[in-house]
């Protein structure tokens, strides 16, 4: 079995920073692209940032210059460093990863359970 677990969320004041982690565990052969999404109350889930297995990154316009996605392949972990946080960043943040499990011949997508980020004074 493969699991994704997010951590690092919490309450932060506007202008503050948080670092989210997305750790994959289980019988993993390889991890391809990993995405961070977020969903605010009453809104659709939106893609925030992506990182490929080679380290190429993409960001939503709303977070460019403030958020940085990175990965540690040795730890099967992807990070989202969030700086200059705004109240509009308040949401549940989810990671999604394309993972090939050991013994499998294809990649499938896995979701974590989400971590709450609240930006408020």
Would you write up a description of this structure?
The protein has 121 residues and is an all-beta fold. The chain has strands spanning 2-7, 10-12, 18-26, 28-39, 46-51, 57-59, 67-72, 77-82, 91-101, 108-111, 115-119. A hairpin with a 6-residue loop joins strand 9 and strand 10 (108-111).
Compose a concise summary of this entry.
The chain has 121 residues and is an all-beta fold. The protein is built from no helices and eleven strands. The chain has strands at 2-7, 10-12, 18-26, 28-39, 46-51, 57-59, 67-72, 77-82, 91-101, 108-111, 115-119.
Features:
single chain, 121 residues, mainly beta, seven-stranded mixed sheet, four-stranded antiparallel sheet
Question: What is this structure's SSE topology?
Answer:
Layout: E1 2-7, E2 10-12, E3 18-26, E4 28-39, E5 46-51, E6 57-59, E7 67-72, E8 77-82, E9 91-101, E10 108-111, E11 115-119
Parallel strand pairs: 2-11
Antiparallel strand pairs: 1-3, 3-8, 4-5, 4-9, 5-6, 7-8, 9-10, 9-11
